[in-house]
Amino acid sequence: MNPAPSTLSWHGLFSGDNRKPAVVLLLAPLLLTTFKYYGAKSFYLTTLAGRFTLFGDAARTAELWHFSSALVLLGILPALVVKLVFKEALADYGVQRGEVSYSLKSLVVLLPVMVALTYPNARLAGFMAEYPFDRGAGQSAAAFASHAATYLLYYAGWEFFFRGFMQFGLRPRFGEWNAILVQTLASCLVHIGKPAGEIYGSILAGLLWGFLVFRTRSLWAVLLIHWALGVALDFFICYGAKG
């Protein structure tokens, strides 16, 4: 019987060209599972609400817990891995200006399209049951503005994890399109439990936004588009699509 190849050994898993993708692909299920269970609003409301509440508003605190968990688990911790474990620059993972001209063109073309697509979804029962994360966001202009501003924390963590940490981390070993496909698979699975239209939409978004990030070498345009999509959906649910 032939001996097992070195790539099947524990040493082979974390050596040479295998090291970075192994770390990325092992951290992905660990961090995403932690986020889904312990970064959820439901975890705060059932476990932590009796211990601390901000502004005397448990619902708002639950939303902030969810958004902050995304920033820490999907953004800050992977960024620390890039800096301390891979010893690489965050600029190599899309945290840079990149190709500004192409990014601006993408914003001009895609931003109004994405915002417009949220309107019909905002009239669907599944989306209205799911969003906004803070049910009090529509109570006043100030409440909605606060909700929209803090929502950026969520998307910053989300985009760095999938389109930054995973895509750029896997590209050297997997190639560009395979890296995009892997992060699309992961981001789609995390959407399970959301409205069906959002789950299918996440596949198209994963491909499109993954392409844009590699094309522009930057996350900022995709981050703004994704954030605007989420804010627009919540706005239409709160103010424009009832009835």
Described by strand count, sense and barrel closure, the largest sheet is:
none
Q: Calculate Rg over CA atoms.
A: 19 Å
Number of helices: 10
- How many angstroms separate the termini? 70 Å
Average pLDDT confidence is 94
Structural class: mainly alpha
Q: What sequence of helices (H) and strands (E) makes up the elements?
A: HHHHHHHHHH
Number of domains in the coordinates?
1
Helix content: over 70%
| Coarse morphology | globular
Strand fraction band?
Answer: under 5%
Total DSSP E strands = 0
**Which runs of at least 5 residues are low in confidence (pLDDT < 50)?**
none
Summarize the structure.
The chain is an all-alpha fold. The protein has ten helices and no strands.
Topology diagram in text:
Blueprint lengths: L9 H4 L5 H20 L2 H8 L9 H28 L14 H22 L3 H6 L10 H34 L1 H15 L5 H21 L3 H21 L3
Question: How would you sum up this structure, described in words?
Answer:
There is one protein chain. The protein is mainly alpha-helical. The chain has one domain. 74% of the residues lie in helices and 0% in strands. The protein contains ten helices and no strands. The protein has helices spanning 10-13, 19-38, 41-48, 58-85, 100-121, 125-130, 141-174, 176-190, 196-216, 220-240. Helix 3 crosses helix 4 (58-85), helix 4 packs parallel to helix 7 (141-174) and helix 7 (141-174) runs antiparallel to helix 10 (220-240). The mean pLDDT is 94.
Characteristics:
mainly alpha; 10 helices; 243 residues
